[in-house]
Amino acid sequence: MYPTTYHSRTRRTATLRTWLAAGGGLAAVLVLLILVMAACGARSDQNDPAAGIAGATTPTPDGGGPASGVGTGGEGQAGGEDQTGGEPDNGNDGGNDGGNDGGDGGNEGGDDGSEDTEEEPDQPEPPAPLTIDVSVDTITPGGNCFAAGTIAVTGGSYPLTVHYQWRRLVLGGGWDGDPVSAVQNFTLDGPGEVQVQTNGLPEDGTNVMLLVTGPKDASSGLVTYDGCSDQPGDIGAGG
């Protein structure tokens, strides 16, 4: 009887050990499987932005708002405003501004056109150069021997004052001559000519000339005569 009992116990012990070993292996496999699933879940949470956003906006147990004071949800709303942003409004404003600018351009164009059509006021023409012509017309001999001449003025600005004098050449007196009369003058309001004369020519004189000394120099040239004792007569202008 003893050997049979011994073998029976031995078999039970071996069977129990087998089951324990199998159970331990199964438990180890379950633990390993749980760890693998947990690791995969953690990686999935890290790789999924939506999970992070959802976790950030999870309400606290006391019924408050999101766990974070400034969450990504606010940025999401800002993003929504960007999606409904002002591109259409900007387009309308651009069109209106463009139209207004075009109208302004048209108005400016009209102003430019009106300025082009305006005539500038007439500018006064500059005066013609001043010209003075002098001539000796007659020398009248006799007791009141005198010479007459003409001073003609054209061009220049008016009123104009002309200064003149009668002179004669004498031996050794130079080309300026000796005065026969004092310097005299007259004023013109416009172009024209004036008759002038001098009295008291020397009876022994043989020449005379009419000089203009202002506003510019002019001369009749030397005119000769035979003295004041001869009969009156006309003479031509000297050269």
Condensed summary:
This protein has 239 residues and is an alpha+beta fold. Helices cover 41% and strands 24% of the residues. Among the domains are: 2-56; 131-234, Immunoglobulin-like, CATH 2.60.40.
Q: Name the structural class.
A: alpha+beta
> What is the alpha-carbon Rg in Å?
66 Å
CATH topology of one domain: Immunoglobulin-like
Low-confidence stretches: 54-59, 63-86
Terminus-to-terminus distance? 191 Å
Mean pLDDT level:
73
CATH architecture of one domain: Sandwich
Number of separate helices: 4
| Top-tier CATH class of one domain | Mainly Beta
The total strand number stands at 10
Main sheet overview: 6 strands, antiparallel
Shape: rod-shaped
Level of helix content?
40-55%
CATH-assigned homologous superfamily of one domain = C2 domain
N to C succession of SSEs: HHHHEEEEEEEEEE
Furnish the topology, listing elements before pairings.
Blueprint: H1 2-47, H2 49-56, H3 72-83, H4 87-117, E1 131-140, E2 146-154, E3 160-168, E4 178-179, E5 184-188, E6 192-199, E7 207-214, E8 218-219, E9 223-224, E10 233-234
Antiparallel strand pairs: 1-2, 1-10, 2-6, 3-4, 3-5, 3-7, 7-8, 7-9
Question: Could you characterize what this model shows?
Answer:
By secondary structure, the protein is α+β, with helices and mostly antiparallel strands. 41% of the residues lie in helices and 24% in strands. It has 4 helices and 10 strands; from the N terminus they run H-H-H-H-E-E-E-E-E-E-E-E-E-E.
